[in-house]
Design goal:
Layout (H helix, E strand, L loop, with lengths): L1 E6 L4 E7 L2 E7 L3 H7 L8 E6 L3 H14 L5 E2 L5 E2 L2 E2 L10 H14 L3 E6 L2 E7 L5 E8 L1 H11 L19 H27 L3 E5 L3 H6 L5 E2 L3 H10 L5
Parallel strand pairs: 1-4, 4-5, 8-11, 11-12
Antiparallel strand pairs: 1-2, 2-3, 6-7, 8-9, 9-10
Helix pairs in contact: 3-7
Length: 241
């Protein structure tokens, strides 16, 4: 039984898995988490962490986990290769661990050309060629980052968040901001579709907290909310194709 931790830029998510079966899951490592995990405490054999957080935050995670389990957590960073999957980075360990683990899971699922989109605090796009070679990717501001920058870094742009998804030209500031972001995502979706055709990528996998909003903006892809956990589990298990 394995406890998996995904420590992102804004929050910590966790899952307890017995092989591929999810027994429990939640957010943050709190005393309530300890209560949730208590019934399986003796059966947890490994704690695996995928983290893009700072070293200070990682030390804090270690301290929190020490209160949950006597096991020492293992932090899994990006690697140069996983089976036929090969990183394009000259220094593979500098890639965000979440991006790498999402790619590991995507390659394990499809073993063919695939695009991996993670719509979190940052919006990342990675392309894996049909032979497993990572072709590179993009890192863009995520939804919340875009909205926060408009509110904090631009003069006189005060807006309300709107529920509707529309790319029609806005007729007030709130519509201009919300519709503008939807319009931007529609443009991103069209460009991604063109890239998939150019690079012979047959699948698009989408994960991250805003992934479903991105799919709603017209991105043609498959919603895979547990993609980072899937890749982390494969990596920690030492699985290879």
């Amino acid at each position: 039984m394995m406890l998996l931790i995904d420590a992102g830029n804004t929050r910590i998510k966790w899952q307890l898995r017995d092989a591929a079966r999810i027994l429990a899951q939640g957010y943050e490592l709190t005393p309530e988490t300890q209560v949730q995990l208590q019934r399986w405490q003796a059966e947890i054999t490994h704690i695996a962490v995928s983290s893009v957080a700072s070293s200070e935050v990682q030390d804090h995670i270690r301290h929190q986990l020490n209160e949950l389990s006597p096991l020492s957590p293992v932090f899994y960073s990006a690697r140069g290769a996983w089976g036929e999957l090969r990183s394009s980075y000259r220094a593979p360990e500098t890639m965000g661990a979440d991006r790498w683990h999402a790619m590991v899971a995507a390659w394990h699922r499809h073993q063919q050309g695939v695009a991996v989109v993670d719509a979190g605090s940052a919006l990342t796009v990675d392309y894996i060629g049909p032979d497993g070679q990572h072709l590179g990717g993009y890192i863009l501001p995520g939804r919340r980052m875009c909205l926060a920058s408009l509110r904090n870094d631009a003069a006189r742009i005060n807006y309300d968040l709107l529920d509707q998804q529309s790319a029609a030209p806005g007729t007030n500031t709130s519509e201009c901001v919300n519709h503008g972001l939807h319009w931007l995502w529609q443009s991103l979706s069209a460009r991604l579709a063109a890239d998939c055709q150019q690079y012979n990528l047959t699948s698009v996998l989408v994960t991250g907290g805003d992934g479903q909003l991105l799919l709603g903006a017209g991105l043609a892809g498959c919603w895979c909310p547990d993609l980072v956990f899937d890749g982390l589990s494969l990596t920690a298990n030492g699985s290879r194709l």
